[in-house]
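Predict structure. Chain length: 859.
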Amino acid sequence: MTSSALPILPMRISRPLLFQLPLLITAIAVVIVVTWLAAWQYVQQMLIRTAGEALTLGAAEIALKFDRVVSERYGDLHAMAVVFSHSMKDDPTFVQRYLDTVQDTYETYHWIAVADREGRLVESTSTEWPRGKDVSGTRWFQEVRARAADRPDATVLGGVDAFLTEKGAPDAIAISRAIYDSRGAFAGVVTSRIAMPVLEAIAVETLPGLVNKNSMLADIEYQIIAEDGVAYVDSDLAHKGRSNLATLKLPSWELARQGPAGYIEEVHLRRHIPVITGYSRTRNWGQPDASQWTVLVRMPTASLVQPIQSFHLKVAAAGVAIVAPIFYLLIWMQTRLREEWRFAQAERLRATAAQAQYHLLLQTTDQGIFGLDHRGRCTFINRTAAEMLGYSPDELLGRLFHDRVHDGADAPCDGRCVLVRALSNGSSTRLAEQVFRRKDGTLLEVECSAFPLTEDSRTTDFVFTFMDITERKQRTQALLQYQGRLQSLATQLRKTDELVRQRLATELHDNLAQTLALCQMKLAVLSRATAPSVAAGIAPVIGLLKEALTVTRQLMSDLQPPTLGGDGDLAAAVQWVTAKLQRHGLTVHIVDDGRRKLLDADVLRIAHQSLHELLFNVLKHAQTTEATVRLRRSGGYLAIQVKDCGIGFQMEGKQGPTQAGGFGLFSLREQLRTIGGHIRISSVPGRGSRVTILLPLQTLSAATAPTGHEDDHNTTAAMTGGVEVHPIRIRILLVDDHQIMRQGLRSMLESEPGFEIAAEAVDGEMAVELAASIRPDVVLMDINMPKLNGMEATRRIKHLFPDIAVIGLSMHEDPKLEQLMYEAGASVYLSKGTAFNIVCDTIRRVRSGDHRAQNSPVS
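Prediction complete.
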């Protein structure tokens, strides 16, 4: 037999890629770190280069201004030498005024002096060098005089240490020039001192402009160094002039002496930190023998690099914060992929083994399995399916399957056909009942399911499973019939149980209870009419009768609730159930909409049983001592709702009969179904439960034509017709459906003086008729009677004849019945076990107008 299996898709995860992924992650990390370091170094070098060039320009500008100041002083001395060559000796006053004017005009000069050819000062602006002082031995005078002999224009630019200054004066640069007479012979020397603070001001004024042009520059230091290597101008005042940079071999100073201006990275000699130093030298302005000065402008490298380092560190931190999770995700994905790859390999092995088992399972299962492509042609079919349809597999493979199981002899397939629905809509179906036609033409009832197979979001093939359900349907039908018979038997059993209970309650009420009550009353009358010794012997018997009557009443109440045969039936049943449950500790609150609710006898019985069972369930399972009963009309139904705030329960599954065979929710639902009722249950664990039952109301009037027996009417008529009319005070109408009780009461009442039994009635309707015809003074009214109960009869009599007093009599000592009788118009409610003398006294009192002379039953 040929069959087809579903393909197993291969796992396409490459093993080399999985193992190369860690290397790829490491390479990416290395590239990122190297790129970051390279960018850091590049930016740092570019900043150092830019700052160095700016510092070089600043040093060159300071050197240029320094040269300009010195050059201007050269010109001043040349002019003074020419002026003094003609008037140095002839007019000393002019020379003094001229010197003072020059010094006042140019604040650059610290002092100026003029000496003659012998070396004596002609005039001077310094108090330390007064007029007439011999300066012929000074170095500057000797150098000028020596140069004057060799060349006509002798000028000397000396170093700071080359000349002496007055005590406490600032450092200064000496510039001296020879004075010639009219014949060109050496006539003297004019000398001046330029204060170093004036030259330092050049650097101080130049650097702020440099900082403004280059905002990256900060913490700038400067030095102006003489030819001998001493920095006479230094931004660090504490070390000004104290160190010789020539002996310390400062790299920037040495580079400045060797070539043009530039910058260098070096270590600060005093602070021992890396710095960037820009350097430049003065030009001497044509004075080859003059000493040259070096200008150094530097700043700490950290001041320039630290901001960019902080920025790069922030960038690195942000990069780590971004890249680290990505790397972690990549590592996690690589780990998961390796696990998935190993799992896929294991699954491939298992799939290979399962594929072999698949064919075996396909052929050995008891279900029919076949496959169809999108055109409806059979792609595979197992042995079971072919045998159930009566074909061989080769007769179905590759052919239209629907035409074989649903040929043209059948009615055209509609939307209920699983095959048509699957092939046309691509929808799946589960457990749909179908009818297939076998090869021999017989019909096969099956339960069929369809499962579409999708590939690339489109349906390609279908797998169908089916199984023969003919035997199961036969068993289901038999089970349904058996269930129906069981329900019918259960209903009959419940009715039989109710009839037996009703019959026992009726027998107890009509015979035993009435006889006991009558015996108790007669013994009470007898004990009053006999000697005290006899009365003392009768008293224990009366007590025993009372106890027996109490037990009998309790049995009657347990067997059947008191029904009144009218509108009060439901109220009486509800009161009976709630009173019984309250004796067991459950407080029941009743909420009634006050509308009329008449029920048939069977419905009333089920209402009573349902209410009793629901309240008993609350007491037993809800773990609460309170419940609420709501009564209301809802259309043609009576709705009885029982609600509690107990522990509740889960609304799962269906409620079945209890293990003890009790009247559970399942039995309640079945019983309500027989009368056309319904039940709704809702519960939440911890929040209580709510059960509502709907009972059909009585649609037709329950009143029927009088069905009293002729002998009862005849008897009553004979009683009324044969009574001799005498003018007596109290005329009494006895109403009771029990002949023994009527006869007993009649015999006892007739023995009492002043009482006359005007008539007897066996039901409520007869009581109303006799009350209208004979107009009695007092009516002794039984409550539970056929046709018309005592409450309704009392209500009609009091409505027609308000002056007739009604005394209610009942075997039940029920406060609710007493209340209903008072509401109907009764003057007094008495138990049939009440002492006869109290009955007589009550009749006399109500006749006299004291209608509430006795308002509670007395035994």
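Summary: The chain has 22 helices and 25 strands.
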